[in-house]
Design a protein that fits this description.
With about 270 residues, the protein is α+β, with helices and mostly antiparallel strands. It has 6 helices and 12 strands. The longest helix has 15 residues. The two termini are about 20 Å apart.
């Protein structure tokens, strides 16, 4: 809410943050922009008209603008701290522009501690590791598969992938995604758990699936949205959690800690 009581919306267009009020749009101040303000618009000083939009009735000289720090709106970026193409696809369901800044951290987990706590801890480390500015919102996630108390991450070799799939064959297992949201309204971390049951898999099926290459970048050595859809007999919980991002619960958390970001999705 701007000082004059009118609502201004921040979003991203063509890689730049834009301030919108009604049909008017402003970009952050630059030397090449013309500062904009109209008689019925109490616009904070550092947001200026982009010269390609010709609203001449709103233009003021840069020299006549008084920049008051207490009246500056902070730009807000949504940052995904992951290079996963599946998480990028799922976050796109929200319809909110975002940037990707993959976190580079030690993801080693302590097998002596509860898996749901460890995956949450790793997601929090990822969220805190990426650079951000005041007002930015960061989403980080980490996904593991747990079968019989054993944590299954991404396989390091085709042989390891085959062994993981043999372990999952004919058994129930859990997919756990730790998710952290860092926002101006607070930081929240949670773990979403989905339970699955695989039918009995033959060695031939396992070898053929591993040879496809699909399992090699996925926790538990399978992708539910791909060839492993043929293996799953039952699922309880969030399907998208198995893909790497629990979108339903994530949306609820974003609405809590970054409500201004979610305004256009509700």
């Amino acid at each position: 809410m701007a000082p004059g009581g009118e609502t201004y919306r921040l979003y991203e267009r063509f890689g730049e943050n834009v301030l919108r009020h009604g049909s008017h749009e402003w970009l952050p101040y630059s030397k090449n922009a013309v500062c904009a303000k109209s008689s019925n618009t109490n616009l904070p000083g550092r947001f200026c008209f982009h010269p390609v939009w010709e609203y001449h009735n709103c233009q003021l000289s840069i020299l006549n603008c008084q920049f008051q720090p207490e009246r500056i709106l902070f730009t807000m970026h949504l940052i995904l701290a992951s290079g996963s193409p599946r998480r990028r696809e799922l976050l796109g369901l929200f319809g909110i522009p975002f940037v990707i800044r993959a976190a580079d951290i030690d993801e080693t987990m302590n097998p002596a501690l509860p898996a749901q706590d460890e995956v949450a801890r790793v997601s929090r480390l990822k969220a805190l590791a990426v650079p951000r500015e005041a007002g930015d919102v960061v989403i980080a996630a980490d996904t593991i598969v747990v079968c019989g108390g054993k944590i299954l991450g991404k396989p390091h070799s085709p042989e390891e992938a085959e062994n993981m799939l043999r372990l999952l064959s004919g058994r129930e297992h859990q997919v756990m995604t730790g998710c952290t949201v860092c926002a101006p309204g607070g930081t929240e971390t949670f773990t979403e758990i989905t339970e699955l049951h695989f039918r009995q898999l033959s060695d031939r099926e396992i070898r053929r699936y591993v040879a496809s290459g699909e399992p090699m970048d996925k926790a538990g050595s399978y992708g539910i949205q791909g060839g492993a859809a043929l293996f799953c007999e039952g699922l309880r919980g969030d399907y998208y959690n198995v893909m790497g991002l629990p979108v339903c619960r994530l949306g609820q958390v974003l609405a809590k800690v970054a409500p201004q970001l979610m305004e256009d999705t509700q």
